[in-house]
């Protein structure tokens, strides 16, 4: 599959990446080349093959319902770009 | 084979240093100072370290010496090591090689760091890496390329390039790495050291910044299999904070190292010796395999018929997972935030575009596409099916053989800048390592000769949780060869 | 005039009453200072990993069993990817293709007295998001992630509901169920139980569904009813004026009583669901399901039937008493402590007790009168220490904390007068004080009997045993 700049812009928006117009053709070229590489998969018929999401065939391990975390707001917010009154600040959210 | 114990500190392996510390020949403080000095002198030309933690290293070393005085020392107590900058280290910048986390001071330790701290290991610093572990040459780092100690014009491999170069140049006796598609084994091969990627689930991923969660696995990088055994024994084990981490006893890896190889069945996948393999590398690997025959092993040609699909499947699975794993870097709670965002969308798209480099953005885009509506089945689901086929190939192979051997990388280290503009060619340098991650198997690379100045790596692949066997097979080879003792002349 | 049929499906989010979050060990308590209950996992810090809370799984299985659903032996957590400031990781961990609970049903009572079975498509586990606070921080929004990672059970109904009233009846029934099971505190003001409604209309008789609108985040029964009613009107108006319904997400504005499109959802989302690689499949075995089944409390309908049979209550009384598990538990505790008199207990629990709770806006858990205290009061009615009327005063005194039944009776001197001679003495005094009325009564004005009863009770300050007063008065008035 070959991607053009329009598709790249759409994907970039989904991924929330600002791509400069002048870089878009290069991305389109690279992405198309990568897709061409991965499309080699199509050479093999995989009908009936169970998809493998994890390398280990195991069940999920669960944890007991216990509270073991204490308030560490100060420590965590020391590395935050913008906080006020204990809140993380972002440009206004519109619902 | 064994250098005398009076050899310079930096020339010694972890096992030798551990013995020296135990015998009181030197203190951890002296040892740590010696390596810090080498880092100070040699790192500027290698760029292997992003952060050097001299002060805390000396404090840890003194604490280790104190612990030894109290009779509480273990094998790693007082041994200096370096951490790939993907492992969170509390109070120390953990950049993941990215501008995004250039100012990220981790508020907690990775489990691997906790475990090695508990063993008394001393952290020298954080090593350079491809940005978010995405790369095979260490050229995608925000902090610049790492140089291969064997030839400063060559890449060290990636993504754990800083760790590999630092061990090879004797700036540290050991280091941690992570391996998602070959990121421990390929740089180990290109720098002439030993590195093992354990079975998926053997080492906790807690605090190890995720690239592709179903493929990532941490492991040790050192000069010898014996040193890797010592490090892995401390790193591995159950962790309640990682639900994919397996609750299974950790063997005493060092104890099994000397097991004889007579009767060992080594599988040689014909797909790993075909087109694309550099003939000089092939010759070195053949010689190493011949050595194994001398040691009593039997070699059997096997087939892993879906090998050629490993790279295509990987470049769907890994980007898909990374596109989601890296969504948290949004400029809100930590990490890079753009100046004066105009609105929420602007905050996201500029913070992320400025914070991530080109290769990371490429993989995020590929992964986003592969998961998007209308393409999921053709790309993501298809890749998961291929993953099953690849995994089944290995299962069948291990019905026949004990370990699989072959080249780690199709070529020796390439030149800096040589492949940087051609992602596809770059991806192909992981052709022999990637399938191992897709299957979740353990894999090891050990030095097996040179092509010119540049080292060749031999890859050994084991069955699930067969780390002990892999380390044993590598160790026996290192008892009869000395590739692992060679030092790049500029760093002797 | 075209006749329209409404089709409604509800997606209800019930916050599960676990102590810790679904994937982290941070507390879930409501109302903490912003971001003080958001740990590294809830904040989506680099390198952190989720570990599933087994209690959340148990609670999901409880609901599944209670609605006769299938509990999946293997279910999968997936990532729902989208960017929003209250979603720290850039994805929500949810269940997509393989949910933990599938295919259940719930029977609702309609206004005409009939009942209707509503299908429950699925219920799946997921994590809640944080909150955006829109007070003005210099034109910015503030993000509080305390709620991020709170376990939610999303319960999705079939599009079986045909009116706003049915939707509310279903929602109430499910609310009763989750509170009964003890898996959700049901507090709607705090958002513990909230609902998204998918609403469409179609000409009556048409088989295919109309285009639906999804109304988000309805957190009261009243809002659900009003929002759906408004939406039905809006859609019919639009169609009748020749316009098309757009599939969209809408928000209900309780002040204006109307729904409006949600701006943040204007662009079509592509959530890129895929199995969460940090979480292996959730496997539930038969033994676990049996353990959960054994731990299931008696469900509302079964309890109602038992109350009718065991206590001889009317269907109405049994319904009221079993509407909430806490009330039914309280009632049964009173009956047990009293050792019988289920009807008397029912009258008091449904009467004064419920009225006082209501008056003070108190939750049953906050009641100042315990079941043992109420039983001791009823005991004193039973053994004729006090009359039912006096008991009301004692109850009120007990409610405001004046002490236990006997202490209040003693302190206030409320012990009933059962001594016949003492009662006769009062009767004599009353007859002597009212000679005219006595004469009239004896002349045949029978209804003055009540007057004398009143006067005797008044003179005895209500303490005279009413039955004895009646008996003795009848005798004495005859002359």
Model description:
The complex is a heterotrimer of chains A (about 100), B (about 500) and C (about 475). By secondary structure, chain A is mainly alpha-helical. Chain A has a domain at about 5-45. Chain A has helices at about 5-15, 25-40, 75, and strands at about 85, 85-90. Chain A has a two-stranded antiparallel sheet with strand order 1-2. In chain A, helix 1 packs across helix 2 (about 25-40). The radius of gyration of chain A is 22 Å and the shape is flat. In chain A, about 30% of the residues are buried. Chain B has a domain at about 10-265 and about 460-490: Amidase signature (AS) domain (Amidase signature (AS) enzymes), CATH 3.90.1300. Chain B has helices at about 15-20, 30-45, 55-70, 110-120, 160-170, 185-190, 225-235, 280-295, 310-325, 345-355, 360-370, 375-400, 425, 435-440, 465-480, and strands spanning about 50, 80-85, 120-125, 175-180, 195, 215-220, 265-270, 300, 405, 445-450, 455-460. In chain B, the strands form two sheets. Chain B has an eight-stranded mixed beta sheet with strand order 4-6-5-10-11-9-7-8, sandwiched between helices. A three-stranded mixed beta sheet of chain B has the order 1-3-2, sandwiched between helices. Chain B is globular. In chain B, about 65% of the residues are buried. Helices cover about 40% and strands about 20% of the residues of chain C. In chain C, strands 2-6-7-10-1-11-12-13-14 form a nine-stranded mixed beta sheet. Chain C has a three-stranded antiparallel beta sheet with strand order 5-4-15, with no helix packed on it. Chain C has a two-stranded antiparallel sheet with strand order 3-16. In chain C, a hairpin with a 5-residue loop joins strand 6 and strand 7. The model of chain C has no long low-confidence stretch (mean pLDDT about 95). Chains in contact: A-B, A-C, B-C. At the A-B interface, helix 1, helix 2 and strand 2 of A face helix 9, helix 10, helix 11, helix 12 and helix 13 of B.
């Amino acid at each position: 599959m070959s991607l053009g700049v329009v598709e790249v812009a759409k994907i970039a928006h989904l991924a929330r990446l600002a791509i400069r117009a002048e870089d878009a053709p290069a991305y389109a070229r690279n992405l198309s080349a990568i897709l061409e590489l991965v499309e080699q998969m199509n050479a093999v018929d995989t009908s009936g093959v169970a998809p493998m999401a994890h390398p280990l065939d195991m069940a999920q391990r669960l944890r007991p319902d216990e509270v073991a975390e204490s308030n560490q707001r100060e420590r965590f917010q020391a590395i935050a770009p913008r906080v006020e009154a204990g809140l993380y600040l972002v440009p206004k959210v519109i619902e | 084979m064994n250098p005398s114990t009076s050899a310079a500190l930096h020339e010694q392996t972890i096992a030798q240093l551990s013995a020296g510390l135990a015998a009181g020949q030197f203190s951890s403080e002296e040892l740590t100072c010696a390596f810090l000095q080498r880092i100070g002198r040699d790192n500027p030309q290698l760029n292997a370290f992003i952060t050097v933690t001299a002060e805390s290293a000396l404090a840890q070393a003194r604490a280790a010496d104190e612990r030894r005085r109290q009779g509480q020392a273990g094998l790693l107590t007082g041994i200096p090591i370096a951490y790939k900058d993907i492992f969170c280290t509390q109070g120390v910048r953990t950049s993941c090689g990215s501008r995004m986390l250039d100012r990220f001071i981790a508020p907690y330790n990775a489990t691997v760091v906790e475990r090695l701290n508990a063993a008394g290991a001393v952290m020298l610093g954080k090593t350079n890496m491809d940005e978010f572990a995405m790369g095979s040459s260490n050229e995608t780092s925000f902090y610049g390329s790492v140089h291969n100690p064997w030839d400063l014009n060559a890449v060290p491999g990636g993504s754990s390039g800083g760790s590999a170069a630092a061990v090879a140049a004797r700036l540290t006796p050991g280091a941690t790495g992570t391996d998602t598609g070959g990121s421990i084994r390929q740089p180990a091969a290109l720098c002439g050291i030993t590195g093992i990627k354990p079975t998926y689930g053997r080492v906790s991923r807690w605090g190890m910044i995720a690239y592709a969660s179903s493929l990532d696995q941490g492991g040790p990088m050192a000069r010898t299999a014996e040193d890797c055994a010592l490090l892995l024994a401390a790193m591995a084990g159950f962790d309640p904070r990682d639900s994919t981490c397996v609750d299974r006893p950790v063997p005493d890896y060092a104890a099994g190292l000397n097991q004889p190889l007579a009767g060992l069945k080594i599988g040689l996948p014909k797909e790993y010796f075909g087109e694309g393999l550099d003939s000089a590398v092939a010759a070195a690997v053949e010689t190493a395999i011949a050595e194994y025959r001398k040691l009593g092993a039997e070699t059997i040609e096997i087939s892993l018929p879906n090998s050629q699909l490993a790279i295509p499947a990987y470049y769907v699975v890994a980007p898909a997972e990374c596109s989601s794993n890296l969504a948290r870097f949004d400029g809100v709670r930590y990490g890079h935030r753009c100046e004066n965002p105009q609105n929420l969308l602007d905050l996201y798209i500029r913070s992320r575009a400025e914070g991530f480099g080109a290769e990371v953005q490429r993989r995020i885009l590929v992964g986003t596409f592969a998961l998007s509506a209308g393409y999921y089945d053709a790309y993501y689901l298809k890749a998961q099916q291929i993953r099953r086929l690849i995994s089944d190939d290995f299962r069948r192979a291990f019905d026949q053989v004990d370990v699989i051997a072959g080249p780690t990388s199709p070529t020796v280290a390439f030149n800096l800048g040589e492949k940087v503009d051609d992602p596809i060619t770059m991806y192909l340098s992981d052709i022999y390592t990637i399938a191992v991650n897709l299957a979740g198997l353990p894999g090891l690379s050990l030095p097996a000769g040179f092509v010119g100045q540049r080292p060749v790596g031999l890859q050994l692949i084991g069955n699930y949780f067969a780390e002990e066997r892999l380390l044993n097979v590598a160790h026996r080879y290192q008892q009869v060869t000395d590739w692992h003792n060679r030092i790049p002349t500029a760093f002797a | 005039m075209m006749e329209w049929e409404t089709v409604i499906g509800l997606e209800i989010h019930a916050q599960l009453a676990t102590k810790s979050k679904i994937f982290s060990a941070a507390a879930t308590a409501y109302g903490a200072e912003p971001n003080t209950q958001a740990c590294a996992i809830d904040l989506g810090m680099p390198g952190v990993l989720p570990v599933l809370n087994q209690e959340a799984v148990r609670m999901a299985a409880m609901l599944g069993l209670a609605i006769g659903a299938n509990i999946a032996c293997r279910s999968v957590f997936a990532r729902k990817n989208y960017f929003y400031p209250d979603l720290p990781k850039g994805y929500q961990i949810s269940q997509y293709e393989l949910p933990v609970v599938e295919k259940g049903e719930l029977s609702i009572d309609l206004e005409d007295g009939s009942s209707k079975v509503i299908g429950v498509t699925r219920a799946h586990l997921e994590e809640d998001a944080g909150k955006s606070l829109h007070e003005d921080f210099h034109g910015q929004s503030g993000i509080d992630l305390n709620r991020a990672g709170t376990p939610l059970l999303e319960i999705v109904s079939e599009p079986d509901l045909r009116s706003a009233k049915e939707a509310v009846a279903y929602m109430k029934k499910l609310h009763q169920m989750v509170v009964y099971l003890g898996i959700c505190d049901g507090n709607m003001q705090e958002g513990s139980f909230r609902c998204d409604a998918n609403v469409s209309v179609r000409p009556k008789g048409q088989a295919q569904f109309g285009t639906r609108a999804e109304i988000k985040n309805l957190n009261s029964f009243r809002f659900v009813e009003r929002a759906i009613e408004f939406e039905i009107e809006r859609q019919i108006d639009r169609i009748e004026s020749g316009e098309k319904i757009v599939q969209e997400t809408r928000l209900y504005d309780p002040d204006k009583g109307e729904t409006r499109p949600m701006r943040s959802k204007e662009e079509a989302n592509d959530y890129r669901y895929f199995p969460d690689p940090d979480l292996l499949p959730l496997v539930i075995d038969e033994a676990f399901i049996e353990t959960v089944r054994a731990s299931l409390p008696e469900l509302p309908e079964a309890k109602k039937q038992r109350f009718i049979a065991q206590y001889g209550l009317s269907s109405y009384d049994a319904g009221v008493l079993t509407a909430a598990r806490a009330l039914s538990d309280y009632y049964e505790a009173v009956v047990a402590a009293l050792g019988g008199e289920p009807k008397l207990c029912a009258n008091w629990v449904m009467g004064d007790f419920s009225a006082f709770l209501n008056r003070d806006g108190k939750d049953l858990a906050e009641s100042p009168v315990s079941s043992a205290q109420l039983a001791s009061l009823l005991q004193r009615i039973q053994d004729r220490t006090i009359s039912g009327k006096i008991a009301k005063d004692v109850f009120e005194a007990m409610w405001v904390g004046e002490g236990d039944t006997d202490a209040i009776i003693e302190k206030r001197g409320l012990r009933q007068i059962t001594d016949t001679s003492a009662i006769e003495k009062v009767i004599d005094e009353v007859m002597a004080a009212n000679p005219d009325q006595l004469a009239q009564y004896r002349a045949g004005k029978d209804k003055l009997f009540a007057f004398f009863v009143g006067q005797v009770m008044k003179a005895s300050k209500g303490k005279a045993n009413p039955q004895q007063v009646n008996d003795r008065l009848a005798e004495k008035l005859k002359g």
